[in-house]
Design brief:
By secondary structure, the chain is an all-alpha fold. It is about 80% helix and about 0% strand.
């Protein structure tokens, strides 16, 4: 198996990010367009608090990862690990908001989750973490 260069690693990470992002957006589309708000089973106020907490953790966590990456000369492996951590934080809060929307019928958390997901994704692109 040929060894990956930093450029091919960055390209692979970009493709993985795009595929995972499509999964989040397709799931959100299904929830938002198939939702029957009459069958809500969780209090929307409680779900907003849970989502808000996960959004704060995701945003602060992404900032900490970025600060650590900027603070030292990290190798490609550490950079890719950081990209995965930021991705997991962004995707986790997005899915909490979307599932919250499915359980409550309140679309606000889904829209806010998707907006924060896009912001985190655009602010921490895989190219910055690829060690190029």
């Amino acid at each position: 198996m040929p060894r990956q260069t930093p450029d091919t690693g960055s390209q692979a990470l970009t493709v993985i990010y795009a595929a995972l992002a499509m999964g989040v957006f397709f799931f959100a589309a299904v929830v938002l367009f198939v939702l029957d708000p009459q069958e809500a089973s969780v209090d929307p106020g409680l779900m907003k608090i849970i989502w808000f907490a996960s959004a704060i953790v995701a945003t602060l966590g992404a900032g900490i990862v970025r600060g650590r990456m900027a603070g030292g000369a990290a190798g490609p492996d550490a950079s890719r690990t950081a990209a995965i951590v930021v991705w997991a934080l962004a995707e986790g809060q997005a899915l909490v908001g979307i599932v919250g929307t499915m359980l409550t019928g309140d679309r606000v958390t889904a829209y806010a989750s998707l907006a924060l997901f896009v912001w985190l994704w655009m602010r921490y692109p895989p190219a910055k973490f690829a060690g190029d």
